[in-house]
Amino acid sequence: MFGRPNVFVTTPDASKRVIMGDEAFKPGWPTSTMELMGKNSFIGISYEEHKRLRRLTVAPVNGYEALSLYMTFIGENVAVALEEWSSAGEPLELLTQLHKLTFRIIIFIFLSSKALKARKKVVDGLHSILYQRRNRVKHEDDSGKQQLGKNKKVDMMEELMGVEDENGRKFRDEEIINILLMYLNAGHESSAHVTMWATVLLHQHPDCLCKAREESEEVVRRRPAHQKDLCKLQALEIRQIDYLSKVIDETLRFITFSLVVFIFKEAKTDVDTCGYTIPKGWRALVWFWGVRLDPEVYPNPRAFYPSRWDNLKPKAGTFPPFGAGSHMCPGNDFAKIEIAAFLHYILVGYELELVNPECPIQYLPHPRPKDNCLARIKKISQHG
């Protein structure tokens, strides 16, 4: 399988050994995956290089200033989309519409505006844009205008162009492109699926829906008088939606549409993994699907129960929706904010009505209703 011998690793302790054992394992993704993602992508680079990229991309992607800026655009687009969907009066494929919405958001955050398709076209387009941006910045610098890195950037690409490490080294074009491609997938495909499932699961569990709605409405009530009619979720308010954060975590566990469902690692030498030796050169495929249903890890695992996260701190290898160890996704905060923003907006002003509540689930390539969640979005109240 995958061109060489593989060992499937499914238990939490063994998974932790593989994921955290950078001294004994290195990235071991199949050749086809590396060709698709790029040889310098986050999944294939060394532990040291991944650590460097994570450190340098924290501020442009997950920093408070960046997230505050993103929140404004995310909120505006979510509000407009929900208004359009509810006004249509006809059933719509929620998953399809969420794909369009998250794609529009992530592309704007990357480039201010651009529609890109297929990896080769994406790479060619990004190379062209990077070339134009660098020439423009050089011209502005030579003419005494704004200098990159010293004034406000217009999007994530320009943020990444200006980042430099402690040695003054900046990102190469290939590095910037691979970072953007990773976020394109995580911020578009994955976010759309998780958002759809969180919305559906809340409406399938009225007690959870009521609790989440009360929390979001309380956030609106606590705003100053001149802002109470606005449905806009502020960056500071993200910390106030504690239960909604647990809803998102429980959705990630319950559905297991993780941003990383499995991880390939190659043994550098013979490695003992909880009593089983993985020979040198073999791949360890860490598979996270089964852990979510392990009653020793999650009591009553088949129940959707967000409150299980009240005092739960998952052990390593048991909850990896954003990866784990040295290859933790650096955009985890952005992804959760994007999902939380949509849920907040729909909770305070809309409700979901599934057209086919018993619709069968299609599991490949990712779990989803076969009808792409055909539903009606109905307005129940309005804040502004």
TrEMBL record:
<keyword id="KW-0408">Iron</keyword>
<dbReference type="GO" id="GO:0016132">
    <property type="term" value="P:brassinosteroid biosynthetic process"/>
</dbReference>
<dbReference type="GO" id="GO:0016125">
    <property type="term" value="P:sterol metabolic process"/>
</dbReference>
<keyword id="KW-1133">Transmembrane helix</keyword>
<keyword id="KW-0560">Oxidoreductase</keyword>
<keyword id="KW-0479">Metal-binding</keyword>
<dbReference type="InterPro" id="IPR036396">
    <property type="entry name" value="Cyt_P450_sf"/>
</dbReference>
<dbReference type="Pfam" id="PF00067">
    <property type="entry name" value="p450"/>
</dbReference>
<dbReference type="GO" id="GO:0005783">
    <property type="term" value="C:endoplasmic reticulum"/>
</dbReference>
<dbReference type="GO" id="GO:0016020">
    <property type="term" value="C:membrane"/>
</dbReference>
<keyword id="KW-0349">Heme</keyword>
<keyword id="KW-0812">Transmembrane</keyword>
<protein>
    <submittedName>
        <fullName>Uncharacterized protein</fullName>
    </submittedName>
</protein>
<dbReference type="GO" id="GO:0010268">
    <property type="term" value="P:brassinosteroid homeostasis"/>
</dbReference>
<dbReference type="InterPro" id="IPR001128">
    <property type="entry name" value="Cyt_P450"/>
</dbReference>
<keyword id="KW-0503">Monooxygenase</keyword>
<dbReference type="GO" id="GO:0051777">
    <property type="term" value="F:ent-kaurenoic acid monooxygenase activity"/>
</dbReference>
<keyword id="KW-0472">Membrane</keyword>
<comment type="similarity">
    <text>Belongs to the cytochrome P450 family.</text>
</comment>
<dbReference type="InterPro" id="IPR002401">
    <property type="entry name" value="Cyt_P450_E_grp-I"/>
</dbReference>
<feature type="binding site" description="axial binding residue">
    <location>
        <position position="329"/>
    </location>
    <ligand>
        <name>heme</name>
    </ligand>
</feature>
<dbReference type="GO" id="GO:0005506">
    <property type="term" value="F:iron ion binding"/>
</dbReference>
<dbReference type="GO" id="GO:0020037">
    <property type="term" value="F:heme binding"/>
</dbReference>
<dbReference type="InterPro" id="IPR017972">
    <property type="entry name" value="Cyt_P450_CS"/>
</dbReference>
